[in-house]
Write a structure and sequence with these properties.
Blueprint: H1 15-20, H2 25-30, E1 35-39, H3 53-66, H4 72-91, E2 95-104, E3 107-116, E4 121-126, H5 131-148, E5 155-161, E6 165-172, E7 177-181, E8 185-186, H6 191-202
Length: 208
């Protein structure tokens, strides 16, 4: 017996709608013709000097001292946006905020943050909590980006974050496979490791 579909024909689905669906990520992604796995990912890491590390370490600690980021808006303004702006300055990349795309009725909406660098592309989904369901939304956004972009890079990277916790994912485009990292990166405790991954994904930073 074939189970009823999760995604209803003729129904419009924005990216945020996928966050609300109570189904397992593998079942949702299967209806978009993609497979899903959870494993420890081997992410690219930049090994050189990070110009932004000292400043961002102090800046984020100061922000957390004076602001309790209990809302998603606070987390974006106090933790996430400052981190991504410094990464873009480090790599001379452009930060797109609320970046809209429309592939079809099942794949449309806005990326919270989108960076298209010289080496790779990165989608960031900001969440107040519940990174598990947030990752499902991120995975759908990566599937949409696969069909939207003209880039031929074999993998697309994404991260879902509360600002204090970051989890990465990879979409292997040819295999139609979404890989979710088992590891969480904590800020400010693992800020340097997080920054090296973000820079490694996007580009090799310019030499000042």
């Amino acid at each position: 017996m074939t189970r009823p579909p999760i995604l209803q024909p003729g129904t419009s689905y924005t990216f945020s709608k996928y966050f609300e669906l109570p189904y397992a990520p593998a079942d949702i992604l299967a209806e978009l013709n993609c497979r899903y796995e959870r494993k420890r990912l081997d992410l690219p890491k930049y090994e050189g000097h990070l110009n932004c590390l000292d400043f961002l370490t102090g800046y984020l600690q100061r922000n957390l001292t004076y602001v309790n980021p209990i809302s998603e808006t606070a987390r974006r303004e106090v933790l996430i946006a400052p981190t991504l702006l410094e990464i873009c300055a480090e790599t001379h990349s452009q930060l797109n905020i609320e970046y809209p795309i429309n592939v079809n009725e099942q794949l449309k909406g806005s990326f919270d943050y989108y960076i298209n660098g010289d080496v790779g592309m990165l989608v960031i989904e900001a969440k107040q909590s519940d990174l598990s369901r947030g990752f499902t939304q991120l995975a759908v956004e990566l599937i949409a980006l696969d069909q939207w972009t003209q880039s031929e890079t074999p993998v697309l990277y994404g991260a879902v974050t509360t600002g204090e916790d970051w989890r990465f994912g990879i979409f292997h485009r040819q295999e139609k496979l979404i890989s979710q990292d088992l590891k969480l990166y904590r800020v400010p405790e693992e800020l340097e490791e997080l920054l090296r991954i973000l820079v490694g994904i996007i580009a090799t930073p310019a030499i000042f």
